[in-house]
Amino acid sequence: MTNDNPVPERDDRYYLLDAPMGRALVHLAGPMMAAVAAGFIYSIVNAGFIGSLHSTPLLAAITFGLPLTAIVMAVGGVFGTGGSSAVSRYLGELGNVTGEAADQLRSKVRAYSAFTVWGAALAGVAVAVLGLAFLGPLVTLLGASGDTAAPTAAYVGVLLAGTPVLTVAFAIEQLVRAEGAARASMVAIIASTIANFGLDILLILGLHWSVTGAGLAIVLSNVVTVCYLAWHLHRKSPEIRIGLRWFRPDAATAKEVFGVGASELLMSGFLVVSSLVFNHIAMSYGDSLLAAFGVAQRIVQLPEALAMGVALGAMPLLATTFGAGMVRRAHQALGHGVGWVAAIVAVFALPLFVWGPDTLGLFSADPTVLAVGARVLTALLVSALFNGFTGLAITWFQATGQVRPATILSVTQGVLFIPVLFGAHAWFGLTGTIWAITVSEVLCCVVAVALFTRQHRAPEAVTASASSDADPVAAS
């Protein structure tokens, strides 16, 4: 199906429904790649600020905080992913109807939009209260002990206090992209990154608040994100509304948002458990492995972040075209996304193979951290390619509202890592522990290919792909 009512080029929806695929992805994924690259740069700088204090326990503390960050993102992702996917599909349908049917779809879009933002806020408050009430046990659960316990508690405590802001920021950013406004999302993320950088200078170097300053900088910079994007939706969005009067937490809305968003929560939840297990095993080799892993992760975030930018940019394109019944265009978008991810990882990972080990010295002068970090960096670079493909597959299933394969693949990412880690640790020691994540990412990619292949071999999916006016539901 083609769009019978072409959208003007000045409208963001043009890139979702009418633009040539290469141009559409440049418009939608390009800003997101720039935005997540800016976030990557901040992550490097943030670790550099902490590393400049020449304290391995402080560097380990922010690594211990990574699982909590993943939890917060997962909570925001339940609402952001589930809500934005539904909003994009309904916006796609909106172009095919008029009159009362169009009014009903507009009401749905606004109800889902408000549910996305206010639901994320309430969930963030719940996480904050529970986390602060059990801060001591939580720090122990994260794996911190001895010299790392106190800085980890300080860092985690600040993040927990700001969790409502963080969950809303993550959700509203996805909501803005639901109607193709990738540039607004990019502006918000870059502005937040600049604010974070300035706050790090003030709080870490100026006021000497160490990891407490790092956590506070993250929270306050996300306030910038929320304020800017709320203003954008209020002043410039043609359909999305987030006012409290549109917040209607009925069963149907919750079911659709949680149905798709649950895959995000399950994936992140299992990954958090995996991180905790890894932390405990890594500590048996001393603080050096954990610190090296945290530093290497930040370096490898460059190709991974750019691949994530492709998936984030493709999400509204996949969901809107699928909702509009333009299934062939949705498949074209997915194919272009796969090509982009492969090119990105190849272009950015190869230089890191050559010069990556040298960059480790920017974060730590500990010779043990540098030696182990070089091995960890190699393993993570290999896994980046497979992780990018798996992420695109999950995005496809989420965007098209296919709950079961999205959930299966999301759970697989977390479940596989634990037995692989235990086996590799028992049989190959330090080397096996380092390469366990790579092995699990390869296996996850195999599962993703199997799920996608099975879907497209189904008679109804083949029919939907071949027909220009297929019903979007039939393709699932």
Task: Report what the structure shows.
The protein is an all-alpha fold. The protein has one domain. Helices cover 83% and strands 0% of the residues. It has 17 helices and no strands. The chain has helices spanning 13-17, 21-51, 56-64, 66-94, 99-133, 135-141, 149-161, 163-177, 182-206, 210-236, 251-283, 287-323, 327-359, 367-399, 403-415, 417-457, 459-466. Helix 4 packs antiparallel against helix 5 (99-133) and helix 8 (163-177) packs parallel to helix 10. The longest helix has 41 residues, at 417-457. The chain is globular, with a radius of gyration of 22 Å. The two termini are 17 Å apart.
Short recap of the structure:
This protein is an all-alpha fold. Helix content is 83%, strand content 0%.
What labels describe this entry?
disordered C terminus, mainly alpha, 476 residues
- H/E series, N to C? HHHHHHHHHHHHHHHHH
Radius of gyration: 22 Å
Strand % is under 5%
Largest sheet: none
Domain module count: 1
How many β-strand stretches? 0
Helix content: over 70%
Shape: globular
Mean pLDDT comes to 82
Cα separation of the termini: 17 Å
Class of secondary structure makeup = mainly alpha
**Low-confidence stretches at least 5 residues in length (pLDDT < 50)?**
459-476
| Count of helix runs | 17
